[in-house]
Design a protein that fits this description.
49% helix; alpha/beta; 21% strand; globular; 11 helices; 284 residues; six-stranded mixed beta sheet; 11 strands; five-stranded mixed beta sheet
Length: 284
């Protein structure tokens, strides 16, 4: 009888242990990773899915990739603490780190290259060709646009009187505006152009580089324990060395990961007043 009791108990443990493990795994809260909506949602999720898979494997925790319909909504969600981790433009990341309880993990090694593109069948002959015209952008508060406006001002073009910025829903949309002639030009990141459809690449041409700024930041909310943040950082660095990681950085041209340093912090701190001004009600 004792032997029979022992066998029944063993069977029960064998049957229920995997079920309990599966239930326990199912109840683990996902790590939410926010993606800045600089591309279409479909392209964002496709590009960053390998990172999500790598994090899930290393952390043994589900990873949920999320984004927002526009820059303002996304930045507000970041500053409201809706994400455990976020991929964010450097000036927004610096604001989140300084004022909203986030810590820097890593940044993309390659700087963000800001380019002014026009329709290939109607290229610009000179900077004066922008007078009285519109330039398509994603969001006026984007660092690419802030620095681009300063560059154009240095060359004698003043926003509002010499040209206007027209906001679109993504860099891809801004590129389409320029390629189709809806806007005279578009100020976008170079990576947007190389990730665009063959048709858009065919119809658009880079007129000139406007600026170069630090790469995208990966930041973590401070509710994530410091020990877990170290694990996330280690997982990202490990991903960089894998075939999937090498393919990711080759495709996106982000150049790998780097540690944010004092030079980046000093540069971004100088831009914080203008960043806050452009965000306006978003951060009130």
């Amino acid at each position: 009888m004792k032997i029979l009791h022992f066998l029944l108990l063993s069977c029960c443990l064998t049957l229920f242990s995997p079920m309990a493990a599966a239930q326990e795994k199912a109840t683990v809260r996902p790590l939410t990773v926010g993606l800045m909506p600089y591309l279409s949602t479909r392209m964002l999720l496709a590009n960053y899915q390998p990172i999500a898979v790598a994090l899930e494997q290393e952390l043994q925790q589900p990873v949920q990739l999320v984004t927002a319909p526009d820059f303002d909504t996304y930045v507000k969600r970041v500053l409201d603490g809706e994400y455990d981790m976020a991929v964010l433009a450097p000036h927004f990341a610096r604001l989140a780190i300084r004022d909203y309880g986030y810590s820097a993990l890593l940044m993309h090694k390659a700087p963000i290259r800001g380019v002014l593109v026009t329709a290939r069948n109607k290229p610009l002959a000179s900077i004066d060709g922008l007078r009285g015209q519109s330039i398509a952008i994603v969001d006026r508060s984007a660092l690419l646009v802030i620095v681009g406006a300063v560059t154009l001002a240095d060359e004698g073009l003043k926003e509002g009187s010499d040209y206007t910025f027209v906001e679109t829903v993504s860099h891809t949309s801004a590129l389409h505006n320029a390629a189709s002639g809806k806007s005279r030009a578009a100020l976008i990141s170079y990576s947007t152009l190389i990730l665009a459809s063959p048709e858009l690449q065919r119809d658009a041409v880079i007129w000139r580089d406007l600026n170069s700024i630090p790469g995208l930041f990966y930041i973590s909310h401070n509710r994530v324990p410091a020990s877990r943040q170290k694990q996330i950082k280690a997982a990202l660095l490990a991903f960089e060395k894998t075939p999937d990681g090498q393919q990711f950085f080759e495709k996106t041209k982000h150049g790998g990961f780097a540690e944010p340093g004092r030079a980046e912090a000093d540069f971004l701190d100088r831009l914080l007043p203008e960043t806050r001004r452009q965000l306006g009600a978003t951060i009130r």
